[in-house]
# Entry
Amino acid sequence: MQLSLRGLAWFSLYLTITLVPAFVALAADPFALPRSGFVEASVALAFIAFPLLLAQFALVSRLRALSAGFGTDVLMQFHRQMGIVALAFVVLHVLLLAGRGASWPTLDPFSGSWAMRSGAIALWSTLLIVASSVVRRRVRLRYEAWQVIHLAAAITIVIAASAHIVAIAGYSRAASVRGAVIGYGAVALALATWYRVARPLTLMRRPWRVVANRDEGASTRTLCVRPEGHDGMTFTAGQFAWLLTGRSPLLAQQHPLSMSSSAAPNDEHAIDFTIKALGDWSANEVPALVPGSRVWVDGPFGAFTEGRQPAQGLVLVAGGIGISPMRSILRTLRDRGDVRPVLLFYAANDASRTVFGDELRSLERSLNLTLVYVFEHANGEWRGERGRITESVLRRHLPHHFKRFQYFVCGPGGMMDATERLLIGIGVPRRLINTERFDLV
Ligand SMILES: Cc1cc2nc3c(=O)[nH]c(=O)nc-3n(C[C@H](O)[C@H](O)[C@H](O)COP(=O)(O)OP(=O)(O)OC[C@H]3O[C@@H](n4cnc5c(N)ncnc54)[C@H](O)[C@@H]3O)c2cc1C
# Structure
């Protein structure tokens, strides 16, 4: 199936899931007398916000078909936006009711009837999720702490919102509406249990061992891992997996990492991850993963992959650790004897912040590869590109038929935004630009 058709199919499913409870309520209509327009509008918003909030579980639950269709960063962006839309619907739901005279104390989760309390709990939990996600970096909330808050608040929303709709006994007086609400709640909780409990348990039977942990310089290490007692994992170059480290997959820290080795099969089924020290886990735990350490790998995921569109060549734009998936793409092209032209723009602060120097030079010989380093703070002897990747840097190196190439951009957020804008500005079709963002939240 073409990607656009698949996208359309997923979107139609999403829309259907979002609208079903409202239509079930409309069809059931258990009210003998017509009600005020304010109330009806408010209830309609609630019946859309409820499935929107619950569908968020599907967006983050690592469903491979979804991730392969859109790419994880696109899904996460959609997840964030839909969270804000759902919050707006919930707030409007309350405001419309208040507009017709409902009193503000109904927002108190500690007093009043359970029907109202559960609604207030759902509202405050939704606010907590959105606010903690928006300000996480600014208030330096640790990722792991934020994750715990996020999951706890999400589960609270499912239970409280379902209870609120059922207990308020409006449209939910109809058995079909109660059935839909409870069914949606159960599916959301099942999805959370699947990816938080069942999935890690299945990984327990598929351990991996670290076979090498190399220092690449520039605060970067490459971990080579090999499956133990199973066939490992096949992937497409550019994809990523979650690396689980710790005593058991259930208690492990899970970090998304692009594979940096070739996707071509190897006898050992070994794969590489190249990891930059950016925080607690990558700076302290990764160096301690000595050969023999046990880890788990959950993947592959993502759509940052070559071959989805016919292309006459590839342009890879890497910033910093964004080189990791590019190494996998280049090694894979080499292993399958691809002769198409490939251009790699590799942006870094200076030469000392780059990795894989010798390997990239050797790939230049075995592939039709042109390597363009762009150093923001190069020393006086540097003869290559300086500063940032700009339109003139791109134009100096892109071939004349660049609009028929496929583009891959991975690096710091600001650099990715700027590069995407530049590429679109010089006429590269949007569908040929692939991005992978390393900061999901
Ligand atoms: C699709 C994808 C592919 C990635 N590939 C690579 C790669 O090949 N090499 C590489 O060095 N890094 C990669 N990253 C980034 C990597 O996941 C983070 O750098 C790493 O998790 C940092 O963890 P930390 O505890 O060391 O740092 P922290 O300081 O705790 O985190 C730094 C940032 O990383 C993100 N992060 C932290 N923990 C997690 C987590 N458990 N799950 C998701 N995000 C988290 C958060 O945005 C956080 O602000 C990738 C990220 C994504 C989303």
Remarks:
- The mean pLDDT is 93.
- The two ends are 30 Å apart (CA to CA).
- Residues 3-202 form a domain with the Four Helix Bundle (Hemerythrin (Met), subunit A) fold (CATH 1.20.120).
